[in-house]
Amino acid sequence: MTTPPMTDAADAAASAPHLADSHDLIRVHGARENNLKDVSVEIPKRRLTVFTGVSGSGKSSLVFDTVAAESQRLINETYSAFVQGFMPTLARPDVDVLDGLTTAIIVDQQRMGADPRSTVGTATDANAMLRILFSRLGEPHIGSPKAYSFNVASISGAGAVTVQRAGQTVKERREFSITGGMCPRCEGRGSVTDIDLTQLFDESKSLSEGALTVPGYKAGGWNHRLYTESGLYDPDTPIRAFTKRQLQDFLYREPTRMKIAGINMTYEGLVPRIQKSMLAKDREAMQPHIREFVDRAVTFTTCPDCAGTRLSEAARSSKIGGISIADACAMQISDLAEWVRGLAEPSVGPLLTALGDTLDSFVEIGLGYLSLDRPAGTLSGGEAQRVKMIRHLGSSLTDVTYVFDEPTIGLHPHDIRRMNDLLLRLRDKGNTVLVVEHKPEAIAIADHVVDLGPGAGTAGGTVCFEGTVEQLRASGTLTGRHLDDRARLKETVRKPAGALEIRGASTHNLRDVDVDIPLGVLTVVTGVAGSGKSSLVHGSIPAGENVVSVDQSPIRGSRRSNPATYTGLLEPIRKAFAKANGVKPALFSANSEGACPNCNGAGVVYTDLAMMAGVATTCEECEGKRFDASVLEYHLGGRDISEVLAMSVTEAGEFFGAGEARTPAAHRILTHMADVGLGYLTLGQPLTTLSGGERQRLKLATHMSDKGGIYVLDEPTTGLHLADVEQLLGLLDRLVEAGKSVIVIEHHQAVMAHADWIIDLGPGAGHDGGRVVFEGTPADLVAARSTLTGEHLADYVGT
After folding, report:
1. What subcellular compartments does it reside in (predicted)?
2. pTM, to two decimals
């Protein structure tokens, strides 16, 4: 029997693409998050798409706050209501249509938690695998993996338990013990604190005379009354005359419930009280005056019992081939990977393979110079982002959307090539890769480019261009025009007015470095990631009276914080309003007496819907202005306080620069904000809505009026568009011409080419770096081509 021939219609159906293969686009229509103006784009799947545009143009709003946020929200909705109750609630982005989304994995620049117990090893699961390895092979054997963890304390106990057995209630004695690896002296922190008692009180005075010098312990306050009215000692006796018992009660007494001024309160010695209220907090989160007190009163020294390893003596005594887990964590990761590969133990074969692959990923991504015991809080934004990438490199997942936020931050041009290869590898496995980026080397590898703009803030939020990199070059957009920009070497460089001598610098991987940093000029310190740049500059030039240091630590602030409060601009504005109207300055703060009583000065009213996304509605009383109606009746120069906070920096600069509203103190701060390229920001815009580059420049603006003669800047081009780098170079020149010495840690070739003097560290990273491999002018570095930096700078300037 012969098979009948297929019809033409059947042939056509067989050759047509399957309907499932037609979903090859992520469609976004009508996106209005933050400053986006009804943006509609179609992003190709399984391709590498780069989003470009000036800082503040809306890139992150489109990629992170719209596409990635909706993907995560939809995934969370697949869990039961019970599970969702334990998860962060996400509101639906303000967008009309989002189609074709896939699971989004976000690899952002958020710094890793600054918890003192968090290290590179604990953040990447490498420590967990090492602990299992030592619990199986370590000699002598001391217990389970917990016995090697510096986050687990050793505890034991015994007592009676009641159990039901054969219908009868029986009491039995039970004992339990957990062997942990935590050093009992420092509790797994690696350092111990020593409090200088002379900074807490003046022993020649009595409490009634104001002996306490701790911030927040002023006479009359509850913190002060707790001690003066406790009845444990005479508040009129000088502290130096206290008996031994009274001094013990005053400084170290355990928490005790007692009646003080007729109120039930818990009394606690001054030292433990300060440790709980101040030292338990992250230093960067403290208010400036508290931080200053802590820096003055507290010294952190390496724990003498564990020598900073955080581990108990038992955990340090268990070894594999003479190496303890503390030794393994202290090794440079590239060396540790070799040691793991040298362990031929079939009984733990799968574990060694998995651990080896994780450590190899560190090396591959350019972080082989780190060690597993490096505190997570000390990583830069770029390093933290790459550490987060490690768990995704060997992943078998495909058809996933990976979202990266400037993955080249903190990378030397030599390392950017390696990062590009990793992004392409993720794409080639069948994933959609979305990258927010400014560097031309990273834009060049894109399959598809979306350029947002044309400006920043309210002048941005629209799509200026979609297409290939070649089409972008010919497009005439701001990014297209600047894509091939190359800074030229300066024909003449400034002469130094002296030198800052650094001798025998040995912080981290530095090898007794001796170097003279010229003063009165623009000096750029460069080198591959991990070569010792930050160790040299921040370790040898501490921020002090004459040094203004603007590092990469993140700006902290709630949605109540804005550029006006952060820069101190609100203070002179409030005083000017108060003086003009004859009332108190506190009325003109939405966080104080002037707040709208309905929304407490937030401008919105939140409705909590348990595991559903909360709803924020504009306050009906103040219509989102945040102030009480009576406050808005007071005017300065014809404007009320809410209208002033709605102004842009440029507009406010003109308003406070002349006329009835002339306020020199406010005008000076606004001029600094405009100088760093933030003229488009509105004064009352919440800090939480600012991009990473905007926050860095806002921090720089706050330090512009500082009195220091030496400015130390850590990668000021972070988050800057190619067009903005030119403006930054002009700002650096103005600082130098004003008599300042500017020292910049930087990878951007335009800043290197513009420098008067370059100090290049290397030649490699970690123990392969830590030496000065070049000192001289950019022209000499290009001519010599003797270092990796020299080669890349020569290629950049086209010599």
Report:
1. Cytoplasm
2. 0.83
